[in-house]
């Protein structure tokens, strides 16, 4: 398992205002799997992802990423972990406006002070299809192009797992589809592990596995329990493209 | 709407505090200066009122045209006799109060190095203003009383032997008492050695003469009427005043002296406020831009433009009032600090209590508030131009205004105007007040112009500064550089605030270096003698007997004294300096060029003749053979024939040069200002100097002998001391500009919260975030530093051009240090913002809108 969470609970606030965002969730993600997490607002899906990614701390429970227990790590160790093992894709792209597309893609490597692997970078750029726009700044790119840059950025450091938080939330359906296909290809071609939070059932169909959260509990898991109609298999998604 | 403005302020306490502080510091100096000088003035007023409270009429020489040694027309015993005979005079007494004294401490060194030391006599029975603090007043020869301040400072006890030197050589007196006046133990750190009249006259070389005659009128005689009768006997050049007039006149002399200090301190307060204005303008520009959507929302809810304007200006008004109030209160504390500073420099100014005049309160509050409100008007106007529809849009950019389109031509015009004013003030207009205001205004306009131009310079400069940082720090350097040019206007204004302080520091350091160089060259070129005798304080006159005694030492070939006085010349504006020389020996000790009048012009200079400097001749169209009508202190006109024109690169000699005898006879100047000594050839100079040192220590502690090298280094030290004071005052405006950097960074970080969240999420460490912020601050500070350096150098070159024979010299090490210090200042300014940025919670930052 690349990522596994055991009995994770997350409580916000104290006293009367206490909110239990997660009430004991255990889930594991094998390598090379594309998982979608769904659930209504307030179901805890974002909280789960934040905790899995080490951005938030569980009140109780354990999270292991690539063999490392991350609960209790200090900021420096978590930073190092995010740098080495994780990739992020955000709803609002979050590219640095002062850097070119290529520089944005290479940003995680620059931060880590690592030399980019030329062949890998070329492959990535070819895959996201931005060869002619590499010297443009984000302001000169469309939303879809920006998110493709963000995907490439997330993959650049060959992370153990990529977390995508509503990656298509700010995109129209056509560009959404392009970005989802890109994620799909990274799983199929590079064996990338991806965990994606989305509220859009169409987007979720592209995943291998669907988790549904409700009231802080895991309500459905297409890998563990009986398959549900919501869990689209890869071939289906390909067919839809 | 008022609520909106107030809520807006309270929501941003750090920014409020920093912005208010930008105003407060300038106001602090205003209020501090006023409180400080008002307190001193009132103390002196009290002292003078008490001093002359028992005197109906005071007769004193007019000091308009005095000598460098403070001498004026002597009041003779003959005059005293005549005064006593005037109808209505009950008692008249003469007294001595001579500034050319030296009192030695237990360590055999003068008790003061800056403040004057007086030899004074008792004022005479009925007039005595001194209060005995301890012991009694002197009654016999060989007795002295000291002011309590000096006695305490030096640890003297009654019965101790006190060495005093005046015109006459050093002599010991027995301390019989300590005195206060009007409750003050010390008058500005000055020392007062009070003796009987005859002793004071003997010590000051004023046998049969007085510095002051105090008069008590007969009962029922109006002092004012008496003054009119007394004027009949005193003649011109001598003031006859009632006691209260004399006190007022003495007070206004003090005020006049202090007004230079007041003006100088207020100028620095002005600089600091000028810098503060940049900060306020910038802070408001940024916050208005950040709140564009809020304003748009208010507009959609029906707020008028006027209401939006009022809400922003109201915010400025609140900050201005709060900042000014804080400054006013801080100023009272600073006044105490200033007093301590001057005490440390040996100038112990009297200050009884604290004087807070309503003028101080009004000026502080009005100036601080007006500066703040004016600085926020442009941003406030921009806020009104946000269209209501902007409320519905994502990422609103502020609409470009007419003023920003006009910024470039305006900047060029303003810079040009500034340079023009500078040139006008420096080279064209004469008359110091007009020239000074033109120069100051010109410098201000240049600063503003360059500040307006600087948004265009920020890009290239950030490149120059950022490139090495990028090479050294990699990604963080790269991002810092990119961030600093994202909003060039913002960075430019922030940097411009620092630029002002840096420019003035550079200007002062270049000017000082030039002054040192000029003096050194003058000494090297002009001095032919081996030793220079001067007052041990480094300035002021000293007794001529010192030089006369040196002349008797074996190994000394020539002793040639220089003296100084002031006069007015018919047809020439202002007072002119006269330098007295000994024509026979002058050329053996000092070299000046004789431009006209022949090789013998100096040697053959006689009473009734004068040499003029080349500059004086040029300015006033005077040539050899012309006659000058010159006034002496008695208001008599003397006729001097110009017999030569000289050029002294050292500026020591001129504009008018006459024999010392003329200064002595017509201007009563008998003390030396500088005395040059030439030694016999082949003599052991060090041994001779040692003998002279011993002689001075025994008889004339007022004087000291310096070699050329020592003299130069003395001058350097004096300039450095002044420079240190200027740096300290400029530090205030630099501190204000650092607040500006902090403010801009904090606001920029707020804007980039989400970016920072993303950077942290993808693996940027807290250290890297801090470094990025720090480097951005360093780049901003260095842009300010570079602009300031260039401006400072430019100003210095321009200003020194206007001074004749000024050698320009660049203190490269200092200038480099200033640049490095700007960078370090950036690091300091970044401490708080960097910590804030690094502590951001990643999740919250990512969710920030």
TrEMBL record, chain A:
Keyword Transcription regulation: no
Segments forming domain ABC transporter: 3-240
Gene Ontology CC terms, in alphabetical order: membrane protein complex; plasma membrane
Gene3D superfamilies referenced in this protein's UniProt entry, alphabetically: P-loop containing nucleotide triphosphate hydrolases (3.40.50.300)
EC main group: hydrolase
Domain of life: Bacteria
GO MF annotations, alphabetized: ATP binding; ATP hydrolysis activity; transmembrane transporter activity
Enzyme Commission number(s): 3.6.3.-
Pfam families reported for this sequence: ABC_tran (PF00005)
UniProt keyword Nucleus present: no
CDD domains registered for this protein in UniProt: ABC_MJ0796_LolCDE_FtsE
Record keywords: ATP-binding, Hydrolase, Nucleotide-binding, Transport
Record PANTHER family: ABC TRANSPORTER RELATED, IMPORT ATP-BINDING PROTEIN
Name by which UniProt lists this protein: ABC transporter ATP-binding protein YknY
Organism: Paraconexibacter sp. AEG42_29
Name of the gene this protein is made from: yknY_1
UniProtKB/TrEMBL annotation, chain B:
Pfam families with a match to the protein in the record: FtsX (PF02687), MacB_PCD (PF12704)
Domain ABC3 transporter permease C-terminal: 267-388, 728-841
Presence of the UniProt keyword Transferase in the record: no
Residue intervals of the MacB-like periplasmic core domain: 17-232, 491-694
Chief place where the protein resides: membrane
Entry keywords, A to Z: Cell membrane, Membrane, Transmembrane, Transmembrane helix
Name of this chain's protein: ABC transporter permease
Source organism: Paraconexibacter sp. AEG42_29
């Amino acid at each position: 398992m690349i990522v596994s969470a055991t009995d994770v609970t997350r409580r916000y606030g104290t006293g009367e205002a206490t909110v239990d965002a997660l009430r004991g969730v255990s889930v594991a993600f094998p390598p090379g799997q594309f998982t979608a997490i769904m659930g209504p607002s307030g179901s805890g899906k974002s909280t789960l992802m934040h905790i899995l990614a080490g951005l938030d701390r569980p009140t109780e429970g354990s999270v292991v990423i690539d063999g490392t227990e991350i609960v209790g790590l200090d900021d420096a160790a978590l930073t190092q972990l995010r740098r080495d093992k994780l990739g992020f894709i955000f709803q609002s792209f979050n590219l640095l406006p002062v850097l070119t597309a290529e520089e944005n893609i290479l940003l995680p490597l620059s931060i880590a002070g690592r030399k980019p692997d030329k062949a890998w970078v070329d492959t990535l750029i070819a895959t996201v299809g931005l060869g002619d726009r590499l010297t443009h700044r984000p302001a000169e790119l469309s939303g879809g192009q920006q998110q493709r840059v963000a995907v490439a950025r997330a993959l650049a450091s060959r992370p153990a797992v990529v977390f995508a938080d509503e990656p298509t939330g700010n995109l129209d359906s056509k560009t959404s589809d392009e970005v989802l296909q890109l994620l799909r290809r990274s799983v199929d071609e590079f064996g990338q592990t991806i965990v994606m939070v989305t509220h859009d059932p169409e987007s979720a169909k592209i995943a291998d596995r669907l988790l549904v959260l409700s009231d802080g509990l895991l309500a459905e898991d297409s890998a563990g329990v009986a398959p549900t109609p919501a869990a689209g298999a890869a071939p289906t998604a390909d067919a839809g493209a | 709407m008022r609520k909106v403005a107030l809520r807006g302020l309270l929501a941003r306490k750090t920014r409020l505090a920093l912005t208010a502080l930008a105003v407060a510091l300038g106001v602090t100096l205003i209020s501090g200066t006023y409180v400080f000088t008002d307190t001193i003035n009132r103390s002196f007023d009290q002292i003078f009122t008490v001093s002359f409270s028992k005197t109906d009429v005071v007769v004193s020489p007019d000091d308009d045209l005095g000598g460098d040694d403070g001498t004026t027309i002597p009041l003779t015993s003959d005059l005293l006799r005549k005064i006593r005979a005037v109808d209505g005079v009950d008692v008249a007494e003469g007294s001595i109060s001579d500034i050319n004294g030296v009192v030695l401490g237990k360590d055999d060194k003068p008790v003061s190095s800056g403040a004057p030391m007086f030899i004074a006599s008792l004022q005479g029975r009925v007039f005595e203003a001194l209060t005995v603090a301890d012991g009694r007043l002197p009654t016999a020869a060989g007795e002295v009383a000291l002011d309590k301040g000096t006695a305490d400072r030096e640890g003297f006890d009654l019965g101790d032997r006190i060495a005093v030197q005046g015109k006459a050589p050093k002599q010991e007196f027995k301390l019989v008492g300590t005195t206060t006046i009007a409750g003050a133990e010390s008058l500005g750190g000055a020392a007062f050695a009070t003796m009987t009249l005859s002793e004071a006259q003997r010590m000051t070389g004023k046998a049969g003469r007085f510095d002051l005659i105090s008069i008590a009128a007969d009962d029922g005689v109006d002092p004012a009427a008496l003054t009119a009768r007394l004027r009949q006997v005193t003649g011109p050049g001598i003031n006859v005043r009632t006691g209260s007039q004399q006190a007022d006149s003495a007070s206004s002399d003090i005020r006049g002296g202090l007004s230079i200090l007041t003006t100088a301190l207020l100028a620095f307060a002005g600089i600091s406020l000028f810098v503060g204005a940049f900060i306020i303008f910038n802070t408001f520009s940024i916050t208005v831009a950040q709140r564009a959507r809020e304003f748009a929302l208010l507009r959609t809810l029906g707020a008028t433009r006027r209401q939006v304007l009022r809400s922003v200006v109201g915010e400025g008004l609140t900050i201005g009032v709060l900042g000014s109030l804080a400054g006013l209160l801080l100023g009272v504390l600073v006044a105490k600090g200033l007093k301590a500073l001057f005490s440390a420099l040996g100038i112990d100014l009297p200050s009884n209590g604290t004087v807070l005049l309503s003028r101080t309160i009004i000026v502080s509050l009005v100036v601080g508030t007006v500066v703040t409100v004016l600085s926020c008007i442009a941003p406030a106007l921009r806020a009104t131009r946000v269209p209501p529809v902007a409320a519905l849009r994502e990422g609103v950019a502020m609409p470009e205004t007419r003023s920003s389109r006009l910024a470039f031509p305006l900047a060029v015009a303003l810079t040009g105007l500034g340079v023009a004013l500078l040139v006008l003030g420096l080279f064209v207009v004469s008359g110091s007040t007009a020239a000074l205001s033109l120069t100051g205004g010109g410098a201000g306009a240049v600063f503003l112009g360059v500040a307006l131009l600087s948004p265009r310079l920020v890009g290239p400069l950030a490149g120059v500064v950022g490139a090495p940082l990028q090479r050294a720090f990699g990604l963080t350097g790269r991002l810092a550089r990119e961030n600093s040019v994202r909003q060039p206007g913002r960075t430019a204004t922030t940097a411009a605030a620092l630029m002002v302080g840096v420019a003035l520091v550079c200007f002062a350091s270049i000017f000082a270096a030039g002054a040192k160089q000029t003096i050194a060259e003058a000494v090297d070129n002009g001095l032919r003698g081996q030793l220079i005798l001067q007052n041990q304080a480094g300035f002021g006159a000293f007794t001529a007997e010192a030089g006369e005694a040196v002349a008797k030492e074996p190994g000394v070939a020539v002793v040639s004294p220089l003296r100084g006085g002031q006069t007015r010349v018919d047809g020439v504006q202002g007072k002119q300096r006269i330098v007295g020389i000994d024509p026979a020996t002058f050329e053996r000790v000092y070299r000046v060029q004789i431009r006209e009048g022949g090789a013998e012009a100096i040697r053959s200079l006689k009473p009734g003749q004068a040499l003029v400097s080349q500059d004086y001749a040029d300015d006033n169209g005077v040539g050899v053979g012309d006659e000058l009508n010159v006034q002496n202190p008695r208001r008599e006109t003397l006729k001097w024939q110009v017999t030569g024109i000289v050029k002294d690169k050292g500026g020591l000699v001129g504009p008018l040069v006459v024999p010392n005898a003329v200064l002595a006879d017509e201007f009563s100047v008998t003390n030396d200002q500088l005395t040059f000594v030439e030694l016999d050839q082949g003599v052991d100079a060090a041994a001779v100097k040692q003998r002279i040192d011993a002689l001075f220590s025994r008889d004339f502690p007022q004087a000291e002998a310096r070699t050329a090298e020592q003299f130069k280094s003395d001058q350097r030290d004096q300039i450095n001391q002044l420079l240190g004071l200027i740096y300290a005052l400029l530090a205030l405006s630099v501190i204000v500009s650092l607040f500006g950097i902090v403010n801009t960074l904090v606001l920029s970080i707020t804007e980039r919260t989400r970016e920072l969240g993303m950077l942290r999420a993808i693996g940027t460490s807290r250290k890297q975030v801090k470094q990025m912020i720090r480097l951005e601050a360093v780049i901003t500070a260095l842009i300010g530093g570079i602009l300031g350096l260039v401006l400072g150098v430019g100003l210095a070159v321009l200003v020194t051009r206007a001074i004749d024979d000024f050698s320009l010299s660049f203190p490269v090490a200092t200038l480099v240090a200033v640049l490095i210090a700007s960078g370090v200042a950036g690091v300091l300014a970044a401490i708080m913002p960097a910590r804030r940025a690094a502590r951001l919670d990643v999740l919250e930052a990512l969710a920030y809108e």
